[in-house]
Amino acid sequence: MTFEQPMAVGIDRMAWYTPNRFLDLDDLAQARGVDPDKFRIGIGQRRMAVPTLDQDIVAMGANAAEGMLNDIDKRRIGLLIVATESSVDQSKASALFVQDVLGLGGDMRAIEIKEACYGGTAGVQLAADFVRSHPQRTALVIATDIARYGLRTGGEVTQGAGAVAMLIGPNPSIMALEPESVYHSTSTDDFWRPNYATEALAKGKYSEQVYLRLFSDLWQEAGRQGLTRAESLQAMLFHIPFTKMGRKGLRSLSERVPDDVFRRLERRFEESIKHCRDVGNCYTGSLYLGLISLLEHDTTLRAGDRIGLFSYGSGSVGELFFGVLQDGFQRYLDPANSAAMLRTRQRLTMAEYEAIFEQRLVTDGSEQLLDAGDPRAKHRLVRLDAHERYYA
Ligand code: COA
Fold first, then answer.
1. pLDDT tens digits, one per residue of 334-376
2. Per-domain residue ranges for the chain?
3. For residue 238, which of 106, 188, 249, 332 is within the disulfide window of CB 3.0 to 4.6 Å?
4. How far is the CA of 329 from the centre of ligand 1 (A)?
5. Is there a contact between 139 and 81 (Cβ–Cβ < 8 Å)?
6. Is the whole-model pTM more than 0.85?
7. Which residues are catalytic?
């Protein structure tokens, strides 16, 4: 009797986008009368991306996916998921705007997922299950967000914007996802944004506690199920709303894994936070931007290496899951493009940042034409009219 090997499913392609303007957090520290080391070391951030109105989550998501897909890829997609907590409509899924902007066919399910920063992982896991049951098709998952807190609030320094697009498919080129994972959901009030608010509200310290407790519980549960196998872990990635948060998660492992394993995880963690430190929080995409950062910066990872990923969404849901790097995964990354995207950004003055922060889309149904904020971006929100959005 022969047993068939289960089909490997996972991340076949990955690409990302962040807008072309940033605020240097030394400038923010100076303007807010804070020691710059608090932001650089205490929070662990250096810069944050600042999007203009035309780069909403739809435009950013389409810009991330653009170029990653050829015509054959586009026809094979049977599920399109946009994960976001900065959505543009209460009813219509932003995935439908993205589908249109990218010129994808209609033979697919297109939906939006929300559960704070966990939404990206909910999308990835749903997509993987879809591919396992529809092995002829693929799923496109786009995690896209604008992290907005109020000016002069504690969260201001942890803003940012960006999108990560992932094609989930059979026999993936970058990372196979292990089907077993551990997860937990429980209602908490650590971070939220009521429908009438344009900025998130957070009990910052409490949300850090919930994050760390959930990670600890899931690590323990994964251990009970034989999933952690610390020696087999070549890297451990964390949801990074700001890099210090992930660092706290990592440090909690110092007593739980052997010293040499911890040193390896620490070294690779540093590679995983490089993009986030310059982009800031992109909520649903943060964990996956960490994966891109790791794979683009670390030259020692090899096919077969096993990576742990901790996803957290306030509210709150957490999941600890695992992936295995595939042969030739390096060919599917584009570090030169990432470096150029960050290098060609424009540094804003505090006055410019605050002016952009205060800009609003009209809500009265009148026509509003939007300037092209990022000349590098192929897609953008062009116009609002009669409460409808028009993209190019
Ligand atoms: N040099 C170095 N570090 C400094 C410093 C200095 N001059 N001044 C302060 N720090 C450190 C503090 O010791 C603290 O470190 P710790 O977290 O290891 O204790 C850190 O900087 C933050 O300072 P603190 O004053 O404790 O916090 P805060 O009131 O400014 O709030 C957040 C920080 C992250 C909680 C706040 O930005 C926030 O609410 N963010 C949004 C919510 C969020 O992202 N939650 C994460 C879970 S998803």
1. 999 999 999 999 999 999 999 999 999 999 999 999 999 999 9
2. 9-176+333-391, 179-330
3. 249
4. 36
5. yes
6. yes
7. 85, 117, 239
Pocket of ligand 1 (CB under 6 A): 35, 37-38, 41-43, 154-155, 157-158, 191, 202, 204-205, 207-208, 211, 241-242, 244-245, 312, 314
> Residue 229: its pLDDT value, please?
78
Residue nearest to atom 42 of ligand 1 (CA): 204
CB 250 within 8 A of CB 273: no
Helices (H), 11-93: 25-32, 36-37, 57-65, 71-76
Q: Which of 28, 30, 38, 190 to mutate to test the pocket of ligand 1 (most atoms within 8 A of CB)?
A: 38
Structure tokens of 150?
């109020």
Who's near 35: CB < 8 A, 6+ residues apart?
29
Output the CATH code of domain 179-330.
3.40.47.10
- The C-alpha angle with vertex 277 and arms to 298 and 150, in degrees rounded to 5, equals 155
Closest CA to 256 of 284, 217, 293: 217
- Both tokens of 154, joined, read 């504690």
CB 283 within 8 A of CB 117: yes
- Give the Å distance between the CA of 379 and the centre of ligand 1: 35
Q: Whose CA is nearest to atom 8 of ligand 1?
A: 38
- Of 69, 143, 70, 134, the C-alpha closest to 108 is 134
Same CATH topology for 9-176+333-391 and 179-330: the answer is yes
CATH among 1.10.1740.110, 3.40.1160.10, 1.20.58.100, 3.40.47.10 for 9-176+333-391: 3.40.47.10
Indicate the pLDDT class of residue 3, thresholds 50, 70 and 90. low
Give me the sign of the Cα torsion angle 264, 266, 272, 278: negative
φ and ψ at 80, to 5 degrees?
-120, 120
Question: What is the spatial distance between Cα 364 and Cα 387, in angstroms, rounded to a whole number?
Answer: 7
CA–CA distances in Å: residue 216 to residues 158, 213, 270: 23, 5, 21
